[in-house]
Amino acid sequence: MPELPEVTALAAYLDGRLRGARIERAIFPSIHALKTADPPFSTLVGRRVESVGRRGKFVVLGTGPGEGGAKSPEDDGAGRLSVVVHLALGGWVRVSDKLPEPTLPRGKGYVAARLGFERDGEVTGIDLTESGTWKRLAVFIVRELDDVPAIADLGPEPLEPEFTLETFRALLNHRQQIKGLLRNQKVIAGIGNAYSDEILHAAKLSPFAIASTLSDEETERLYESMRSILQGAIEDDLGHPPEELKDEKRRNMRVHRRTGEACPVCGDTIREVTFSDSALQYCPTCQTGGKILADRTTSKFLK
Ligand SMILES: [Zn+2]
């Protein structure tokens, strides 16, 4: 799943390409992907893209009314409408230089939504695609971002200036394993399975350490690691087009999905713990004092 750095880079790319563009097409081949009914998606056509940004793991395309003001009763003329996209596990964006047609391209897989834009005579087509059996990609068209329940519930953004060490310390005050806490969108926005592995490795902490028992020094190390890992990944990702971002993410991972490889810090073999629906990776020497963590699918007693 794309996390904070990839979604930041994707939004920046789309912002550069779409800011100021007029929305020409809005096609939803799969009505399941569209999670809102009011305002209707046809309202988007004719509107202007004001910006493309990110909140948590969501891409937010902000639009304002096109020329001539109100185009429909749903549009009060001044109102901002946002198109909010949650890419989920297998979702991604395909960009083309053509306006999309209502008929789907053959052999190009599942397409959840197709949007077409025009700016200064240049057209851009955006397909929201999704691989895998479970279709979870979700699109919301809302007047306020908080009209998307998962956005209203999001915790703070970890790279914002106001997210201080004290903010972080307060969020850790739970008797919960740190790996799960970092991934919990209601606690901190934007971090998922991949970057939580990377952050914990950089901070030299066990994924199963209990958040509320971390020392001041460990908390500070975790805070600094979180900020530097996310910031570093954004710097690596920015400027890459969408089709390169997934490879870029994979390339930058030091422990995540690198089971059996050598830790780039100490040379120990990277291990994994599997769960019924996911897996985490860690370096025993760097993170657990050399201890091998028990596999959760075979033992529920060991930490
Ligand atoms: Zn190591």
Explain the overall architecture.
With 303 residues, the protein is α+β, with helices and mostly antiparallel strands. It has two domains: 4-152, N-terminal domain of MutM-like DNA repair proteins; 165-287, Helicase, Ruva Protein, domain 3 (Orthogonal Bundle). Helices cover 26% and strands 21% of the residues. The strands form three sheets. The chain has a four-stranded antiparallel sheet with strand order 1-6-7-5, with no helix packed on it. A four-stranded antiparallel sheet has the order 2-3-4-8. Helix 1 (4-18) runs parallel beside helix 6. The longest helix has 22 residues, at 216-237. The mean pLDDT is 92. Zinc ion binds next to helix 8.
